[in-house]
Design a protein that fits this description.
With 577 residues, the chain is α+β, with helices and mostly antiparallel strands. It folds into three domains: 251 residues, Bira Bifunctional Protein, Domain 2 (BirA Bifunctional Protein, domain 2); 143 residues, YbaK/aminoacyl-tRNA synthetase-associated domain (YbaK protein); 92 residues, Rossmann fold, CATH 3.40.50.800. Helix content is 27%, strand content 27%. It has 16 helices and 29 strands. The strands form seven sheets. Strands 3, 7, 8, 9, 10, 11, 12, 21 and 24 form a nine-stranded mixed sheet that branches. Strands 16-14-15-17-20 form a five-stranded mixed sheet. Helix 1 packs across helix 13, helix 2 packs antiparallel against helix 6 and helix 2 crosses helix 13. The longest helix has 21 residues. It starts with 20 loop residues before the first helix and ends with a helix.
């Protein structure tokens, strides 16, 4: 490819809203252009990389026994109504109508569609198990699209679905995909981790794992314990606090007018205008670990209170699962007032709501809580005596300093980017949609399903997040848009152009993808653009052209070398092995 004809323009500066390295560099290097918030066009350079990622994905999917299909993005809403997700999925589901006012959705995922398809094609256990996959476009109306391709409203995804007659077959399919994902991400040159995860809106009855690319720019946290091998995303992580019951250290209690480490009689405290945990700790000179934090959430059709220690935060995904809904939402001040709740002074004593408490709350002995009365709190509140939760379960968010329950060692927090997710769905969708097969005894049974996704366009960004420097992108072998960036220093020098064209033809015949910079630009401009684009090898044809000498420069390494054409060709061949 001649660079003068390439539909790509490099930028000296990235737009101000481009915060992550991958967003900045993919824009600056001419890989992508934004059409609207969270919606991008892929220019030829990006499309070439995506093709190579897709080839790896296809090879590993075929190796795992999956068959490729292509499913419609436009999906009838009645399928989603049958599965129960049409309303439950939330505002991220893009809804529309056709000219006959029939409701449709733009597919964010394809569980309903593939279940309906396989139900019409497979009627007997003799045709099971079967796994199918596709690579296509998905749509999600993200509330706040950001970070370029890492969080978009339209994106490319590989989604696979397995159908089995038994749980053992599902386990086999799950393990095959789990292994395939490891191979895919290894071939993409990524540093990644597979972690326990929450099933989210996909749901299911079995295990689920996320694959996370390790990157400081990641918006997800991985909680891991190297000693035991445990790893989970923050939303799923279960840890043990380092302080087994309470923080009653001298430092925490210094300056306190009372001995908060001892049980106090049940007492009303006048706390005018003191609403937040921080305000209360300062006003009473009491550690946050002595305070019960009471948060009120809407959970489906019910309103529930969730209790954690004052120095903890609520894990809303855990709480939602315990309350039997996909998601919960904290009520606002107006909603609280309509329920007769004293905002800023809510507590569990006498509260006429469903109450979910973290076990650490029940271990507090005596505590301080809201009094459910404006400007009043209670001290000496004893959990289990003064209030009894409806449910006691781990609902706190893991945090720095927590311990691994298995090894007792401190857990490690690492940032990551979700690049893949595998689920055991069980019969969640087959039962809802009536998708059945006949077993050995002629009985109708629901398919036992699995679901397996990879963010293909997100991979493009995740790779750049891990592989870049101040000058630009550093693509791994096999994924770069071109294997070789061939640069004649001066296109007006006939000997340089003749040598460059000869080398270009030789390399192309050997199967190398070559980008020739035939632009009439200064050498410095060409070199900067080459670093920005990030091809693995740069070959510069300059003053040694007549002697068939080129300058060899590897994008991922320092230093340059002068090699003959033959030496450069042989070295390129050796890199393929």
């Amino acid at each position: 490819m001649r660079q003068s004809q390439l539909l790509s323009t490099t930028l000296r500066e990235a737009p101000a809203e481009a915060e992550t390295a991958s967003h900045r560099l993919l824009l600056r290097a001419g890989y992508i252009r934004q059409l609207a918030a969270g919606i991008y066009s892929y220019l030829p350079l990006a499309r070439r990389v995506l093709h190579k990622i897709e080839r790896i994905v296809r090879e590993e999917m075929e190796h795992a026994g999956a068959q490729e299909v292509l499913l419609p993005s436009l999906q009838p809403a009645d399928l989603w109504e049958k599965s129960g997700r049409y309303e439950r999925y939330g505002p991220e589901l893009m809804r529309l109508q056709d000219r006959h006012r029939r409701p449709f959705v733009l597919g964010p995922t394809h569980e309903e569609v593939i279940t309906a398809l396989v139900d019409g094609e497979v009627s007997s256990y003799r045709r099971l198990p079967v796994t199918v996959y596709q690579i296509g476009t998905k749509f999600r109306d993200e509330r706040r699209p950001r970070s370029g391709l890492l969080r978009g409203r339209e994106f490319m995804m590989k989604d696979a679905y397995s159908f089995a007659a038994g749980w053992t077959e599902l386990d086999d399919a799950y393990q095959a995909m789990f292994s395939a994902y490891h191979r895919i991400f290894e071939r993409c040159g990524l540093r990644f981790a597979a972690v326990e995860a929450d099933a989210g809106s996909i749901g299911g009855e079995g295990g689920t794992h996320e694959f996370m690319a390790l990157a400081e720019s990641g918006e997800d946290w991985i909680v891991s314990a190297p000693a035991s091998g445990y790893a989970a995303n923050l939303e799923k992580a279960y840890t043990r606090r380092a302080d087994s019951v309470l923080d009653t250290s001298t430092e925490a209690l210094e300056g306190s007018p009372r001995d908060w480490s001892a049980d106090l009689p049940f007492t009303r405290l006048d706390t005018p205008g003191i609403k937040s945990i921080d305000e209360l700790t300062a006003f009473l000179k009491v550690p946050a670990s002595r305070i019960v934090k009471t948060l009120i959430y809407k959970a489906g059709q019910q309103v529930a209170a969730v209790l954690v220690r004052g120095d903890d935060e609520v894990n809303e995904l855990k709480a939602a699962a315990l309350l039997g809904v996909d998601e919960i939402e904290m009520i606002d001040a107006a909603q609280a007032e309509s329920l007769g709740l004293a905002v800023g002074f809510i507590g569990p004593v006498g509260l006429k709501l469903t109450v979910l408490a973290d076990p650490s709350v029940m271990d507090m002995g005596s505590a301080i809580t809201g009094a459910n009365e404006m400007d009043m709190h209670l001290s000496g509140v004893v959990p289990g005596r003064d209030f009894e939760p409806d449910l006691i379960a781990d609902v706190r968010l893991a945090k720095e300093g927590d311990l691994d329950p298995q090894s007792g060692e401190p857990v490690v927090f690492t940032r990551g980017i979700e690049i893949g997710h595998v689920f055991k769905l069980g019969t969640k969708y087959s039962e809802a949609l009536g998708a059945m097969y006949l077993d050995q005894n002629g009985q109708q049974k629901p398919f036992i399903m699995g679901c397996y996704g990879i963010g293909v366009s997100r991979l493009l960004s995740a790779i750049v997040e891990q592989r870049h420097d101040e000058q630009g992108i550093i693509w791994p072998e096999g994924l770069a848009p071109y294997d070789v960036h061939l640069i004649p220093v001066s296109v007006k020098d006939e000997s340089q152009m003749a040598a460059a064209e000869e080398l270009e033809q030789i390399l192309q015949k050997l199967g190398f993808d070559v980008l020739m910079d035939d632009r009439d630009e200064r050498a410095g401009v060409k070199f900067k653009d080459a670093d920005l684009i990030g091809c693995p090898v740069r070959l510069v044809v300059g003053k040694g052209a007549a002697e068939r000498i080129v300058e060899w420069k590897e994008r991922a390494a320092e230093g340059k070398e002068e090699l003959t054409f033959e030496e450069a060709i042989q070295r390129l061949k050796s890199r393929r092995r």
